C-alpha cells in the first residue's frame, strides 16, 4: 500500500519529512516552496487515491498560483507536528 492510498498515512509521511527538514535547518520559505512544487506535481501527475486527495486536486485545479501557494502552506501547517516523531 502506498502512502497516497490512506489520508492519515499521507499526513504522517508529510509530517515526518517536514520534521526531518526542520531538524536539518531548512527554513520555512524553502519548505513552503517545496510543498508547492510537490502539490503541483501531484495535481498534474498523480491520480487522487482518496476523497481528501480528490478535494485537494479539485481545489488546486481552479486556484491561481497564489492560491496554490496558500494551499501548500496550509498543508504544511496541517502536518507541522503530526508526523510520527521517531
Parts with pLDDT < 50 across at least 5 consecutive residues: none
Please name the CATH architecture.
Answer: Orthogonal Bundle
CATH class: Mainly Alpha
Whole-number mean pLDDT: 86
Structural class: mainly alpha
Radius of gyration: 13 Å
Helix count equals: 4
What fraction strand?
under 5%
Q: So what's the overall shape?
A: globular
CATH level 3 topology: Cytochrome Bc1 Complex, Chain D, domain 2
Largest sheet: none
What number of structural domains do the residues give?
Answer: 1
Distance between the termini: 21 Å
What is the helix/strand order?
A: HHHH
Summed up, what is this model?
The chain is mainly alpha-helical and 86 residues long. The chain has helices spanning 7-23, 28-45, 51-62, 65-79.
Question: Could you explain the architecture of this structure?
Answer:
It is a single chain. 8% of the residues are buried. The chain is mainly alpha-helical. The protein has four helices and no strands. The protein has one domain: Cytochrome Bc1 Complex, Chain D, domain 2 (Orthogonal Bundle), CATH 1.10.760.
Provide the fold topology.
Blueprint: H1 7-23, H2 28-45, H3 51-62, H4 65-79
Helix pairs in contact: 2-3, 2-4
